[in-house]
Amino acid sequence: MQLSSIPTTKIVVAVVVVVVLFEKRKMEVLQLQQQQLLLDSHIRSSLSKTRAPTHSVSVLFRRRSSVGGVRCSVEVSSGGAKMVMELVGAFNELTERMNMNVLSTSSSRLLFKCLKLSIPILQTSPVSPDGRSPLSKALSVAMLLADLQMDAEVISAGILREVLEAGELSIHEIRNQIGAPTAHLLHESLRVKNIPSRIDVLDDDNAAALRKFCLTYYDIRALILDLALKLDMMRHLDYLPRYQQQILSLQVMKIHAPLAHAVGTTYLSLELEDLSFQYLFPYSYLYVDTWLRSHETGGVSLIDIYKEELLQTLKADPLLTGLVDDISIKGRYKSRYSTMKKLLKDGRKPEDVNDVLGLRVILSPKPGECALEAGERACYRTHQIIQSLWKEIPYRTKDYIAKPKANGYKSLHMAVDVSEKSKTRPLMEIQIRTAEMDRLAVGGTAAHSLYKAGLTDPEEAKRLKTIMLAAAELAALRLKDFPSTNHKGIETDQRDRVFRLLDKNGDGKISIEELTEVMEELGAPGEDARDMMQLLDSNSDGSLSSDEFQMFQNQIELVRNLEVRDDQYKKILDEKLHMADDSGLIQVYNKEFGDKLAS
């Protein structure tokens, strides 16, 4: 189309729109610059409170000393010290996510040993095709597995899988250095990895047969490991050509997402479905995502608004707070894939889709003999408080506390109307349960998950649950603590685990010999151990006390938190400041397309 054929009024409107958007972006940039100044001030304040230097990560390897009354700094650029930082930081973050019921001394030793073996190898390995370092990939998978409350063997296998893929160690070498159970899980996970290659046509029948084959012949924990690897892969597919993205997404949608439902890892299955949906049907995903995002107020999620309103109301109730020690609320929008299925399968209009918004109230009753009764009373009290806050939909209330499901599931379900006079809102589903009810619901294999996975036979469900429980019990027996040789009877803090693992002779301090040993295990020279000892040994007694090592851990945690926050800010800034599409042209709002998405 020639420029002369376009009506002058449309050209003027387009120019005005571009100018307005450009001025709006300028204002946003100025606001963000002001926010960044405040952020820098806050960071400097936080760093000064912890006595950490303010200008780089490497300052953690700097020690101030006085020479003739003049303060000076000693810079220690130690590769070994940096690897110790990575080791301690990764170990602490993993163990803090793990269930204390499975975090024994033996499992801590296994995890620590695995990290010591993997970190030196992965830090020097080439960058992955997706742009991440192999160590970053390995730790991402490990964090996923820890969040799923997997045991140390599975988490260790998740870390070592990246070492195995890099060709640095064989399964035989891992068996000799780490142990047979972890090596077995790695071997099984490699077998699971090749599942899609077993069939030529990925239709519904073949996919169902393949899923059943997996659940019958493979270690369930190896399946969960593979599912975590698949989710990590799906989160970083942008570097691949479009056709490869779609092939992998189809495999995940047909095989892995239903498997995740079958083994009870709903958290994995929902994200696998949504990511696959996004790559397979990008325009449909955009439609659903735009509609779901329309339930926001001034850029703030409705879920966050209602969650905070409910939390403050519950905490203000003296009867409820007298029954519980803690109240937590989780919120979610209905998954994009689930929403699409509702719209297509039932022919519903968007405004007729229920449960777009969802909250889960988790109550931790006060400990004692009556904790069970107090927890149930707290659930019903919460129900009453919500009734006074929003309009309940009576026919949607289901009491699975008074009448648990056949599989033992307990929870109180209700739906409320949160519409306002000026704005109609979708119904919001609320689940109320105790922490123990939630643990059983999330960790157990519910019939609902089995149904979604295509496993409706009760005998199949029973068999699967038996296999999963047996695998968990076997792992617990293997990692059960040996009788302790420490008769001091002192309960140690979670953060002391690393100190105790480094203090091999148990004398309450880390000697230069013990520090040198861990440095050598990480592949660093002995000089690094002496530099690090000089840096951390504040009283110059030639060893590290628990307090001195704790200060080191605090500094590590500070830096890791800053790195996470930096990634968050980078993402926000990228979204706010992104003004051009792939062709480099300024994006202009298309009203017709926008109206279609919002309708």
TrEMBL record:
<keyword id="KW-0342">GTP-binding</keyword>
<dbReference type="GO" id="GO:0015969">
    <property type="term" value="P:guanosine tetraphosphate metabolic process"/>
</dbReference>
<keyword id="KW-0934">Plastid</keyword>
<dbReference type="InterPro" id="IPR007685">
    <property type="entry name" value="RelA_SpoT"/>
</dbReference>
<keyword id="KW-0547">Nucleotide-binding</keyword>
<dbReference type="InterPro" id="IPR043519">
    <property type="entry name" value="NT_sf"/>
</dbReference>
<keyword id="KW-0106">Calcium</keyword>
<keyword id="KW-0346">Stress response</keyword>
<dbReference type="GO" id="GO:0008728">
    <property type="term" value="F:GTP diphosphokinase activity"/>
</dbReference>
<feature type="domain" description="EF-hand">
    <location>
        <begin position="527"/>
        <end position="559"/>
    </location>
</feature>
<keyword id="KW-0809">Transit peptide</keyword>
<keyword id="KW-0677">Repeat</keyword>
<dbReference type="InterPro" id="IPR011992">
    <property type="entry name" value="EF-hand-dom_pair"/>
</dbReference>
<dbReference type="GO" id="GO:0009507">
    <property type="term" value="C:chloroplast"/>
</dbReference>
<keyword id="KW-0418">Kinase</keyword>
<keyword id="KW-0479">Metal-binding</keyword>
<dbReference type="InterPro" id="IPR018247">
    <property type="entry name" value="EF_Hand_1_Ca_BS"/>
</dbReference>
<dbReference type="InterPro" id="IPR002048">
    <property type="entry name" value="EF_hand_dom"/>
</dbReference>
<dbReference type="GO" id="GO:0005509">
    <property type="term" value="F:calcium ion binding"/>
</dbReference>
<feature type="domain" description="EF-hand">
    <location>
        <begin position="490"/>
        <end position="525"/>
    </location>
</feature>
<dbReference type="GO" id="GO:0016301">
    <property type="term" value="F:kinase activity"/>
</dbReference>
<keyword id="KW-0150">Chloroplast</keyword>
<dbReference type="Pfam" id="PF13499">
    <property type="entry name" value="EF-hand_7"/>
</dbReference>
<dbReference type="InterPro" id="IPR006674">
    <property type="entry name" value="HD_domain"/>
</dbReference>
<dbReference type="Pfam" id="PF04607">
    <property type="entry name" value="RelA_SpoT"/>
</dbReference>
<protein>
    <recommendedName>
        <fullName>GTP diphosphokinase</fullName>
        <ecNumber>2.7.6.5</ecNumber>
    </recommendedName>
</protein>
<keyword id="KW-0067">ATP-binding</keyword>
<comment type="similarity">
    <text>Belongs to the RelA/SpoT family.</text>
</comment>
<dbReference type="GO" id="GO:0005525">
    <property type="term" value="F:GTP binding"/>
</dbReference>
<keyword id="KW-0808">Transferase</keyword>
<feature type="domain" description="HD">
    <location>
        <begin position="134"/>
        <end position="234"/>
    </location>
</feature>
<dbReference type="GO" id="GO:0005524">
    <property type="term" value="F:ATP binding"/>
</dbReference>
<dbReference type="Pfam" id="PF13328">
    <property type="entry name" value="HD_4"/>
</dbReference>
